[in-house]
Here is the input.
Amino acid sequence: MTSDKITLSGNFQKRPFWFSIINSSWQATYFLGSKIKLDKDEMIRSARRITGLDDLGKDFSDEPLERLLWSVNEEANLHAVGRFITRQRFISLLSIRLRAEYFFRRHPEILDQPLYPAWIIIGLQRTGTTKLQRLLAADPDHRVIPSWEVINPLPLSLDEKVKDKRMAVARTSVRALKLLSPGFFAIHPIEINEPEEDILLLDVSFLSTTPEAMMNVPSYADWLEKTDQSSAYAYAVKLLKFLQWAKPAKRWVLKTPHHLEFPDLIEKHFGEVHFLWPHRLIYESVPSFLSMVTYNQMIFSDYVDEKKIAAHWVRKTGYMLDKALDYRAKPGNSDKFTDIYYNDLIRNSEEELRRIYSMNGGLKQDLMARFEKHEEENPHRKYGTHQYSLADFGLTESDIDKHTFRYRQFITERYGR
Here is the structure.
């Protein structure tokens, strides 16, 4: 385990002073037994006690959680608050699964439904994926997963007469994030009624890249990349079916960069899909995302190393892009993609939306008015300017080039940029 704290560059806003005080005070009492345990069996017992349910489903596997917990305990160097947040989050994910199995048994018609057709946004992090999804969410025919719902896809109470408290939980979570990481919202604004990434549905199976974006878990990340993740996608479809059963629409609009690595699993499990792929100059999108990961990891650990983050994610980015390009190169697959360039989306979203809606009978004027209203209420850089550079991470353009040759060649051929 790392023995020395890493000094972050000046571009990263320091955590509030009180946060460090809480951590140091808490950790000073570890000798009294106050260190939070991160143990699989204990967390499963806690989730069962909280929900009053026992069944995690016949397709639940212990191995992903075991692998993740080993990596967290041995490699992540979590501070006291980080351990507390992680335990609560894992118990919440287990509880979601318990509640899901309850609803699937009670309402078998949920899983009998076909999944809606889907537009799936799969661009790299920091390429306009959030802006695009939030624009498309203004279409009343579209089903998205707002932040309050993705945190808890299933009602917290099994009694349908009890008031749903999921929005209140989400508001508390957003307030906590603003306190813990004041600079985060300039990177990725979180609003409880706006859509969030469906990668959080994969988290319920403990098979996703979320952990490696939040903390240093190299062993888990290495294992994950070599592991079949069909079970996570299959279960995510079950959760999507519950969500569309609870609130019907006509089409899913989903997004997460995670899907770049698995378009074949999307096709296998989701049925009728079309991929929307936003692109941005790679020398801008990569350091922007590295900055986001750094802010994430600062919430969980005092041992945050920008250069280690860069080494992991620059290679990972190239790997994800290559997987998507491999899939796209197969006969017939190119037609399943619509490309959007970041600068075009920022400068003239109407033109990009018209291209997308050409697949759906064209863009009607009343719908365009909805998009324009959304743009007015959510201007670019609403929460401030996000500052970052390759130099923050000890990188040069040539370091990015080593891992992204095929993608840069693809962009040059398509856009001449």
